[in-house]
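Follow-up to my earlier ticket, as requested here are the two runs.
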Amino acid sequence: MISSLLKHISFFILLIQAFPLFAQEIQEEKVYVHLNKTIAITGESIWFDLRVATSSGECHSRIVYGELVNREGKGVQQSIFTLENGKAEGSLEIPGNLVSDHYILRFYTRISPMMGNEGIDNQFITVINPKNPPKTGTNKTSGLLHYSPKKASLQENLISESNAKKRSMLTPDLGGMEGKNMTISVSIKNPFLLDRFQGRFDNKIYQAQQGDKKWIPEPFGHVVFGKNLVPEIDTTETFFLSSHGSQSVLNTAKPKPNGDLFFDLGALKQYDYFIIQSSKWEQQLNFSIQSPFCTLKFKEDFVFPELILEEKDRPFLLDLIAAGKVSPYFYQPKSTDFQSIVTGFVADKTYLLDDYTRFDKLETVLREYVPEVAVRSQSKKTVFKLLNSPISGIFEQNPLMLIDAMPVFDSDVMATFNPEKIQKLEVLSREFFLNADRFAGVLSFTSYENDFGGYELPATALYLNYPLIQPKKVLQSPHFNAKRDQSNFPDFRNALFWKSEIISTADFDKIFTSEIEGEFEITISFYDEKGDFKMLRDGFEVRN
């Protein structure tokens, strides 16, 4: 017993010591993003390849954030993605209700915006909504663009042909690029963005952040930030955040003196919603979830260009719309599910309730079949007293009671609950430590459908929708159209190639054009020998 307790104490000491150490070793994180194209219609997705660079080459962050921002600085689409060894690849879908306009697509980690000018990758993209034309007079004519994007290095003759026919094949020549870790895209060129608005902008386009900066490192996974809004903060109060989806997981946190609460989800990436409760379960919560996305304002002299569409642009726009309408149906990427994680605890005893005669009250089930639990009445309240196995004693308090990882505090309601949709009961008949809290054992119930088995959400609990972490998506072909060799299969791609982690030039030895005419752009990104992020560009034209 004593050795077990010492192990827990040692663990908490190590945990407490780890965070200051992490803070001392933290490095500036520079974010660089390669987009597969810079123009799309609503409903389409923009693919991205993201790299986080540090001085040591090691990235501590495990989460990255992507936002599509309008000219007022409002995020109109926000997504969370996972980082693996400082790399992320995925796509961000363009919402269907946007007005046709230029937008900024930006990416950052939780701490990178506060660590230097390279902490946010900002790039203009153009969104076309066939049902919602651009508004006129939206540009700031008095503003000046002081913060030009970094100019991309140009390399001639990435391909030998400057002109190509529809549904033909081009052979690129990467020359001395063999062995470099490259990301390559081939897509339609955006005719509505002037050169000075193309490329990457850094943090200098934003006003300085006001107030205290919240440093929330994410070395293990996503951290949910909340606020306890009561006038007098009780730092001993425990808040419970249960995450529910394909799996259910419980996290806890105690508020800081200013009311800040941080729930580290760790390896958990898949959830549909959260439920928040407090150890003061009879009181109504005064709690607010905080957005994980940056609140930033553009500088007054930063110009959003005006999107002007003219009659001469009609053929290009019709092709753009055709490509955008076809791609979600015929070139659909495959989603990879998140791996299940180890949750919960190692139970001392597990009961499969189908092995026993069913009763319509949970207290009857416990009385009849679970010898580790003594159901008692104490001060007119039902109490479930668990056996304390290591000392052959009985706990005097209620254990931690869970249904699909959601804490249940009202033992009277629990006693009368009908467990007909409960699959199993797991019992831990010993002290249980969860972060800084100690519980008199655990009674954990699991439903068949991971839906609480019909147990009603407690009146004082908060149900929270929260931005989801996006699963990784994989193209069926780097050429987008896996059936391009079938003459009867529609081929209206305006994105002809997209692939990251290209080491051998043999992985980019062919470009297949489609039915779409116009100017196309080849973009290659990589890190050079000095560790600097570089981009090379070349182009060609497709005509009938």
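Run two:
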Amino acid sequence: MVTLIIEAFFALVFVRALIAYAWRRDTLQRDLALVFFPMTVLLVLEIIRQVEGIPRLPTIPGLLGITLLLAQPCLTLRLVRAVRPVSRAVSWGAFAVFAVTTVPWYFLGTRQVPVVTLSTVIAFFIVQGWAATLLMAEARRRVGAPRARLTLAASATAVLGLCLLAAGAGPAFDRAENVIHLSSEVLALLSGVGYVVAFLPPRWLRQVWSGGTAYRVHRQMANAPISETPEQTWQRYARTVREASGASTVIVLLPGENGPVCVAISGDARPAEVVTTAQDLQEVLDLPQPVPAPTATGSPLLAYARQAGARVLTAVPLQLPSAEQGALVLLSRRRPLFVEDDARLLGELGAQAAIVAERGAAAAAIRAMNAQLENRVQERTAQLRVAQTALEDVNHQLEAQNAMLARSNEELQRFAYVASHDLQEPLRKIISFSGLLVERMPAGLDADTSMYVDRIVGAAARMKRLIEDLLMFSRAGGQVEMRPVDCESVLTAVLDSLAIAITESQATVTHDPLPIIQSNRASIERLLQNLIGNALKYRSDAPPRIHVGAERLDEGWRLTVTDNGIGLDMAYADRIFQVFQRLHPRGQYDGTGIGLAVCKRIVESVGGRIGVDSVLGAGSTFWCVLPAPPDEPSRKESDALGVHAG
């Protein structure tokens, strides 16, 4: 029963190889089927013997079985010669050993002569061991699944030779014959299992073996430098696939505008440029792999393979990140054994090479853009240097003009002070002498003369006030020392100075809690006094109600002065902040038209803004935005701190 199981393993591999040969006409599968043909015949003969119930086979079937069994080492060596170089001397030597060990059995029949039997099994073991050695050497040249499967096949070949050696030497040792026989059966069973696993492995085991190849390719591609060009990346991929598969030449074809384009080739022979078409490549991919390279063919790709000295070609689809498909082509001078395991996997790993190639293309584009950007930066730098030189010239001119303007302003301020002083002296004399004239007239003045004198005095007083306002306007907005100013204390001082006017007009002045701002106290006091004074002056029939408010903005503090006075038309909102611009006749409201212009100069001198919101007949709100102290948080920062604290 054990013998049948062992021979069934060999027969299973034979049937599989025979079917593959019948389907693809692959000579390598034919040679493989011949290796396992003897054991298959022995299985059939053993089944016939047991069915017929005879103790041993007749002479002719027995000699046929012995002949086929002794021919297996030669058939194994024939298979090895198909996948790797084997010298003719070794092949002829193996055949000579087969002939020498087989002929005596035709004279002895089924009789067993110990010397002949021992010589036969030793010769069988030597040839079988040499074939196993050559297979193992070929396995060391491979990686991944081919290496593992060739190693198993070489081990099973060696174990089979050892099995026959043990079976033939058993009768020479009477006491240990049973142990040796049992050992030979175990060795035969191991050999059969090894052959089945090597030539008929399950899919999961092939995937495990191929994992080593995948890791090797992945590591090679992952170690590609970032500066590598796409051409160098594909060349690296082709070289790695050649090392992993053992092929003589590896070609990488990618889709192009006019058909497949060879982007990389790694191999010993490069007779000419690879030329193929999309249809030709697809036809080769659709063929059962591997494909023989005939001497005469209409396929440009197969013709190239023949020119390169290849006997077979293996083509698998090359998976790309895009929807397009390339091809990985492996050329071999000898028919590959087990290469189909890794070929398709290597084609699938082409997607990683494509990603690395795209990375290299992107890096090259970035380098080109960086070079272009650097050139632009150099050009712009040169332009900026020219512009900087021109700007420095303009700055020198502006500095000179500013210095001249500063001197002019100083002279203008001195002139304004002197002029105001010189103009006020005659005005004081006019007013004084007019009073003396009235006092010293013995009989008093008549009505006309009194009117003339009153007009002279009034005009002189207005002139005096105008000169004072002009002097104040010229001094407003000048360079002052900026420091924190408490608006609460400033408002208190302003209300004290306006106490009589507030009482006479029966006004009510309220205010919010006022902040500390970054400005000048005298300037802010003048600002609030002008705004509140205007609210008292331009009041309606109702008692004035004035409110001073404050609001924190991102840019600083917004101060407001709101009243219930006569208001104004917003069409004149900008005009009222200009010098000498009045909206009412002089006889109706007193003033020179300079107060709001002074307010504007004060606010703008500290980097602020001023404006008005008003409704004619319903009151006005004058507002100004003034800077906050540097160490005071803005409204956004205050809100953020409040949320965080909450």
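The only thing I checked on run two: The first helix runs from residue 2 to 24. Let me know what else you need.
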